[in-house]
Amino acid sequence: MDPKGQRVKLNDGHFIPVLGFGSAENKEVRKSEALEVTKFAIEVGFRHIDCAHMYQNEEFVGQAIRSKIADGTVKREDIFYTSKLWCTFLRPELVRPALEKSLKNLQLDYVDLYIIHLPLALKPGEELLPKDENGKLIVDSVDLCHTWEALEKCKDAGLTKPIGVSNFNHKQLEKILNKPGLKYKPVCNQVECHPYLNQRKLLDFCKSHDIVLVAYAALGSRRVKEWVNLNHPVLLEDPVLCAIAKKHKQTPALVALRYQIQRGVVVLAKSYNKKRIKENIQVMSGSVGRGSPKEYPS
Q1: Measured between alpha carbons, how far is 280 from 282 in angstroms, rounded to an integer?
Q2: What are the entry keywords (predicted)?
């Protein structure tokens, strides 16, 4: 980590800010709102922006970044932008065109990190979630090692700086790490991670291979029936989390974010609420109590 504790060094020598702004939107949020909230996130201090082709809002997120560059708030090199390779583009010949499509939507020359969104190949085409007549996803047969080689070529071409993965387990990571002729290791593995799903074993594995764990859903799983049991408790209402927050005169959200940073995890804070966006950035200020590691789940 750099002296200010704001960034973590990746295994290819680049640095990633430890706190990122997640730009995935809920169904009830219009994609165009990504423009306004991303601009606001940059204005209050976020420099790490996480997005993806799957979110279908890169055009607006890119517009927000360019507008903040144009008005002098930031320079391009101040922004760390992550995009993701969607499942319908995992065939090696589709990887670079997919990245170029994202760059065209963003109107940027490069991304700061490009990662495989999921280790699951789906039938190529315009549909993001291709399904058969029975409503089942149509999968594709792709060797992820070949996909990785295509990502390495994108890095060599300067279209992206670091390259990494998302939603990989340790066996899937090992397949890439043990690939003959590996040129670049994944710099990160972005996974769902929060106090109810702390990913301790995966975190230990990643640390042992100099791979940074990036946490999404850091404030709790999405509250939709397809994702979680809605009878399960809401993370930010957890009694232990609330007690720690009260003790340190902070909010449960800030405690959950600080928990990840203290573990050496890069954390994404997703919100389309300006009040919460402004609150979340406070985790990087000296006013947020660091607490004892014993207070937090291991």
Answers
A1: 5
A2: NADP, Oxidoreductase
User: Of the candidates 7, 89, 77, 92, which has an alpha carbon nearest to the alpha carbon of residue 52?
Assistant: 89
117 is in an annotated binding site: yes
Using one digit for the tens of pLDDT, what is the confidence trace for 277-292?
Answer: 999 999 987 545 444 4
Determine the Cα–Cα distance for residues 57 and 198; give it in Å rounded to an integer: 29
Amino acid in the structure at residue 84 = K
Q: Please state the domain extents for the chain.
A: 7-295
Is the CATH number 3.20.20.100 carried by domain 7-295? yes
DSSP state of 177: H
Copy the structure tokens of residue 291.
Answer: 């607490």
Q: Where are the alpha helices (DSSP H) in the chain?
A: 33-44, 58-70, 92-106, 144-156, 170-177, 200-208, 239-247, 252-262, 274-280
Q: Which of 55, 81, 272, 296 is catalytic?
A: 55
Rounded CA separation 66/62 (Å): 6
Q: Is 13 exposed, middle or buried (0-12, 13-18, 19+ CB in 10 A)?
A: exposed
Between CA 269 and CA 278 the distance in angstroms is 11
Distances (CA, A) of 274 to 18, 21, 240, 281, 297: 20, 12, 26, 11, 29
Q: Could you read off the pLDDT of 39-86 as tens digits, one per residue?
A: 999 999 999 999 999 999 999 999 999 999 999 999 999 999 999 999
Decide: 119 and 80 in contact? Cβ < 8 Å: no
Q: Which residues of 187-222 are buried (b: 16+ CB within 10 A; e: fewer)?
A: bbbbbbbbbbebbeebbebbeeeebbbbbbbbbbbe
Q: Is 196 a catalytic residue?
A: no
Tokens, residue 240: 């232990």
Instruction: At 30, list the tokens.
Output: 């219009």
d(CA 246, CA 248): 5
CB–CB of 95/103 below 8 Å?
no
